[in-house]
Amino acid sequence: MAVSDAPSTGQDRRDDLPLPPQVAACGFRSYFVAPLVVKEQAVGVLEVFALSPLQADREWMSFLETLAGQAAMAIDNRRLFESIRRSNSDLGEAYDTTLEGWSRALELRDRETQGHTLRVAEITMMLARAAGITEDDLLHVRRGALLHDIGKMGIPDGILLKPGPLDEEEWAVMRKHTTYAHELLSPVQFLKPALDIPYCHHERWDGTGYPRGLKGEAIPLSARVFAVVDSWDALSHDRPYRPAWSSAQVRDYLREKSGSHFEPRLVDLFLAMDE
């Protein structure tokens, strides 16, 4: 019978300790235990049971010591990984809460779009899944949708809040909001993967959109998805210069612009979702 309290040096090994009753009851004749210590902190114990008397020599004890050390480091690494994962999760949640705050701040300024941002963010996620965007990328899609109009922070009130239609000069200023969004967000490292929607959601499938006149699949997929949802939501709700359109009118408009403003495949997917 042998019991070891710590195999680190062999000096504190004890061969005269009684076998724990619960161990003996299971028919074991030998029992070794070694503490798992990392950075002077115990993180567990390593127990070895034998059904026959085991005389452990120096080499065997050295192996047990090494095994205990490796196990202790593995446990510590796992704890460290979990701590980092939790920290990243908490940080990501804080980021997303901040982004939602930004979007609400913009809506307080532009009251005609109140509620628009969160609506289009959720529906864009649904269409993005249907379009084949991966789960890993959906986080960036949602962030981009929340920030799609953040560039309007740079548009003067006289244009942004004008109750009637904009003239051509005013439209030229309004169209700069996508460029302003790019300039505002691109220095923020964690938002770079979310830039496609704020920067490109006014590009058109036929190449007549802005700011760069991208055409077809040169437009990022997330921006093409968002463009359909954004138009649907804008037309489905009241604006100071026009009342909301009926569901049938909006569906007819999306079909009419399929192939010019919007990617036909995405229009079909969206209309199937909306049935």
Provide a compact summary of the structure.
The chain has 275 residues and is mainly α. 53% of the residues lie in helices and 8% in strands. α3 runs antiparallel to α4.
- Shape designation: elongated
Residue share in helix: 40-55%
Give the H and E element order.
EEHEEHHHHHHHHHH
The span between the termini is 76 Å
The averaged pLDDT comes out at: 83
**Name given to the CATH architecture of the largest domain:** Orthogonal Bundle
**How would you name the CATH homologous superfamily of the largest domain?**
Hypothetical protein af1432
Descriptive report:
The longest helix has about 50 residues, at about 60-110. Helix 3 runs antiparallel to helix 4 and helix 3 (about 115-130) crosses helix 9 (about 220-235). The chain has helices spanning about 20-25, 60-110, 115-130, 135-145, 155-160, 170-175, 175-185, 195-200, 220-235, 245-255, 265-275; strands spanning about 5, 15, 30-40, 40-50. Helices cover about 55% and strands about 10% of the residues. It has 2 domains: about 5-80, Beta-Lactamase; about 110-275, Hypothetical protein af1432 (Orthogonal Bundle), CATH 1.10.3210. Strand 3 (about 30-40) and strand 4 (about 40-50) form a beta hairpin. The chain has a two-stranded antiparallel sheet with strand order 1-2. It has a two-stranded antiparallel sheet with strand order 3-4. It has about 280 residues and is mostly helical. It contains 11 helices and 4 strands; from the N terminus they run E-E-H-E-E-H-H-H-H-H-H-H-H-H-H.
